[in-house]
Amino acid sequence: QYKSGIVSYCSTTQLDHAVLAVGYSPSFFKIKNSWGTQWGEDGYMRLKRGAGTRSTGTCGIIGPLSVYPQL
């Protein structure tokens, strides 16, 4: 169960839950979860940038089912 810190590894890249990337730094993405403020860091988590594979990213965050913003 995630509590805090920067997540750099997941046991799977199988997508099973939608989250929203709300920010980033050179080392991590800030992710908002839909499970409320009791989860993680007040409802958010930090996910390491540059981990995982080039095609899926950390925890499968970048993949064929990802939805990207249209600017």
What does this structure look like?
- It comes from Phytophthora nicotianae.
- It holds the Pfam family Peptidase_C1.
- One of its GO terms (biological process) is proteolysis.
- With 71 residues, the protein is mostly beta strands.
- The chain has a domain at 6-54: Cysteine proteinases. Chain C (OB fold (Dihydrolipoamide Acetyltransferase, E2P), Beta Barrel).
- It has no helices and 4 strands.
- The protein has strands spanning 6-7, 20-24, 28-32, 44-48.
- The protein has a 4-stranded mixed β-sheet, with no helix packed on it.
- Beta-strand share of residues: 15-25%
What is the fold-level CATH name, i.e. the topology of one domain?
OB fold (Dihydrolipoamide Acetyltransferase, E2P)
DSSP helix fraction: under 10%
Q: So, CATH architecture of one domain?
A: Beta Barrel
The top-level CATH class of one domain is Mainly Beta
Number of helical regions? 0
CATH-level-4 superfamily name of one domain: Cysteine proteinases. Chain C
Note poorly predicted spans.
Answer: none
Radius of gyration: 12 Å
Average pLDDT reading: 79
Main β-sheet, spatial strand arrangement: 1-4-3-2
List keywords for this structure.
71 residues; mainly beta; OB fold (Dihydrolipoamide Acetyltransferase, E2P); 4-stranded mixed β-sheet; 4 strands; globular
Question: Layout of SSEs?
Answer:
Layout: E1 6-7, E2 20-24, E3 28-32, E4 44-48
Parallel strand pairs: 1-4
Antiparallel strand pairs: 2-3, 3-4
Organism: Phytophthora nicotianae
Keywords: Zymogen
Protein name: Peptidase C1A papain C-terminal domain-containing protein
